[in-house]
Amino acid sequence: GNFFVVSAGIFISPAALGVFRLVQSGFGVINMILQAYENYLTPKAAKIFDNKSKSEAASLIKNISIKFLGGIAIILLIIILGADTLIHFIQINDLITYSFVVKGMAILYIFILLNYPVRIFIRTAGQNHLFFEGYLLSLAFSLTSFKFLLQTWGISGAIAGLIFSQLLMMAFWQYKLSKLNNQL
């Protein structure tokens, strides 16, 4: 994912890199919350997966994820709808033209939220090699598409690349899990 961010700084402008880094720093709080959620739920689901059944583990992941991630999704929707107001509130008026980056990153995080239960199930099922394979696939997509996306759509192309990378990993992981009869 950072490949698109760094490439935006190189191929678009240093200001684009600065905007991305500023927005990523803001979303770092959500990252910490997601990490806590993953670290709480994974061992709990793994214990059920090992001692009872994978369907009960999947059910636990779904139930907790709907409640927990639903709350974060509401926050992200508020960010999407109020990005301009948020930028005015924190008094970064020079960046108001970049409010679409905040909105785009919030949309990206919605896709990341959708993928989190799958990530947890992969770890629970002991299929950690799928992370490596998924990220290799994402890297291959990034390397083959970044120049076109950045030259054609600028910063919006970088955001689109991040979203497409996330969707690609989601599809790959779901496909691999379904082949293993471990679909969430």
Can you give a write-up of this model?
The protein is an all-alpha fold and 184 residues long. Helices cover 87% and strands 0% of the residues. It has six helices and no strands. The chain has helices at residues 2-11, 14-51, 54-89, 99-124, 129-153, 155-179. The longest helix has 38 residues, at 14-51. The two termini are 24 Å apart. The model has no long low-confidence stretch (mean pLDDT 88).
User: What is the number of beta strands?
Assistant: 0
Structural class, judged by helices and strands? mainly alpha
Helix proportion of residues, in percent? over 70%
What integer value in Å does the Rg equal? Answer: 18 Å
Termini Cα gap: 24 Å
Quick check: average pLDDT? 88
Uncertain residue ranges: none
What order do the helices and strands follow?
HHHHHH
Question: What's the tally of helices?
Answer: 6
Query: Strand portion, in percent?
Result: under 5%
Query: In oligomeric terms, what are we looking at?
Result: single chain
Characterize the largest beta sheet: strand count, sense, and whether it forms a barrel.
none
Shape: globular
